[in-house]
Amino acid sequence: MLGRTYDANDRSSAHLHTLLIAEEKARNREISRVRIQVEYAISGVKRYRIVKDTLRNWNKGFRDQVMETCCGLHNF
After folding, report:
1. Taking Cα atoms as reference points, which of 65, 31, 29, 26 lies closest to residue 48?
2. What pTM value is reported for the model?
3. Positive or negative torsion for Cα 61, 63, 69, 74
4. Whether 31 contacts 56, CB under 8 Å
5. What does the alpha-carbon distance between residue 76 and residue 69 come to, in Å, rounded to a whole number?
6. Could you say which DSSP state residue 53 is in?
7. What is the pLDDT of residues 47-75, one digit of tens each?
8. CA-based angle 44:51:31, to the nearest 5?
């Protein structure tokens, strides 16, 4: 629980603080692992120039088709 303050003289709260820090670190590591995978996937899809550049085609659903196609090619 972030933002909590603990009394340094109280041993039980100091121990609790250590446990919370360990739990927070584990959660942050898990979030970081997922974030890195998502960033790799986004960078892989952005290799296709049509995704990076501004689309001038205003046909309904075209942008979705472009993204689906590029994601499919990336996963291929």
Report:
1. 65
2. 0.57
3. negative
4. no
5. 10
6. S
7. 888 888 888 888 888 989 999 999 999 98
8. 45
